[in-house]
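pipeline stage [seq->struct] | target=Ubiquinone hydroxylase UbiL | organism=Methylobacterium cerastii | residues=418
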Amino acid sequence: MRGSTTRPGSRHLLLAGAGIPGLSLALALRQAHGDALAVTVCDPGLAQAAVRQRGRAFAIAAGGRRMLERLGIWDGLGAAAAPITEMAISDSRLPDPVRPVFLTFAQTPRDADGPFAHMVEAEALVEALRAACEAAGVALEPVGIARATPDGDTIRATLADGRDLRTALLVAADGARSRLREAAGIGWVGWSYPQVGIVATVLHARPHGGRATEHFLPSGPFAILPLADGPQGHRSSIVWTERAADVDALLGGEPDAVLAEIERRFTPQLGQLALEQGPSAHPLAFGIARRFHGERLALLGDAAHVIHPIAGQGLNLGLADAAALAEAVTGALRLGLDPGAADVLVAYERARRFDTLAMAAATDGLNRLFSNDALPVRIARDLGLGLVDRLPGLKRFFVGEAAASRGTQPRLLRGEAL
Ligand SMILES: Cc1cc2nc3c(=O)[nH]c(=O)nc-3n(C[C@H](O)[C@H](O)[C@H](O)COP(=O)(O)OP(=O)(O)OC[C@H]3O[C@@H](n4cnc5c(N)ncnc54)[C@H](O)[C@@H]3O)c2cc1C
């Protein structure tokens, strides 16, 4: 960290964006430094209750779970975090009468660390993070950041209500269309997929037993992800990828017609279905920032990278960003150095760039391979899946990959203190 020196402004950090990665970073920093570091999170969405997240749920891998445990959030989630103990993958066409399972992952007694992922309901997680941030003394401001101007040892952020805040480091956790990233002139390589992600919560007659299922269909994957039982019975979240051109026809009809389309793709073993929440449709895109930082600016979460939800890893990448940035900033502050200095931000980018590129490339490749009905591609991928299923070592590698490999992870993802 050559050339970085402590300055009064270095005791304040500002974040734009109160999504799960942004709130996790704010909480981690405040817990590590207490009153020695003022942390402010600005987001116009803070004016609304977390209830707007209702109906969304995320697969959170083991590393993210360890981080949320370390931050003191996990235990309070209770039934809002349901373990995935088994995963089955099938590859078929929509009219096929059976969906043969090609690949299965199950939790084994050797998995002392617990399930490789949990389905976590977004409303409960956002509520818990907001409450913990408030209790830890993070200032939560329900206002957007309009622009930011680096100014020597600090960066000046102008809020949408006209106030100016000075900070050593501004974290842009303001989502895929990050205005702060664009204003800083940081390039973006990306494209839209001709697909939409449809999300809904369904009730089903029989229990799922912790099993997640992903049916690869020619228009894209249809994932059935286990949630905890609710007052109305057994529940799962679905993430259904469809061709964008077909979405209006599929979702525009009466609720019974929408449910019938879901039933055509669902797993018959779970019995009769009903809709509990949704569906809501989300355009899908790929994108990665050319740099993860600018002058006194760090990009976090979807502001830095957006990937296809085929493997449920976008938020997991954002949590890993938060863990890595918290570690880089904490390292600087403990040495009395400037947390917004260029070398701190380079260290952050170095910690995240390779993992992010590898995951982005893998998810894009998987989507191209599976959202495809050409016969030679079908045969090749089915052989590939069958082979992996017969090699337990390889399978464990794949599960370990999905849950992020342990050795090189930032401390929080290993469940260790900063
Ligand atoms: C269909 C679908 C399913 C998915 N499933 C999974 C999954 O199972 N597991 C997983 O890991 N990931 C999943 N993802 C990815 C995950 O949803 C995203 O990666 C994650 O929500 C990104 O969080 P974020 O906080 O970076 O961005 P966002 O959630 O977009 O939040 C950005 C925040 O910034 C605020 N903001 C915007 N502009 C400003 C400004 N100027 N000033 C201040 N605040 C501002 C916004 O109000 C918003 O609250 C899925 C994605 C899709 C589309």
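stage status: PASS
auto-comment: The domain at 8-191+286-414 is CATH 3.50.50.60 (FAD/NAD(P)-binding domain). The chain has eleven helices and 20 strands.
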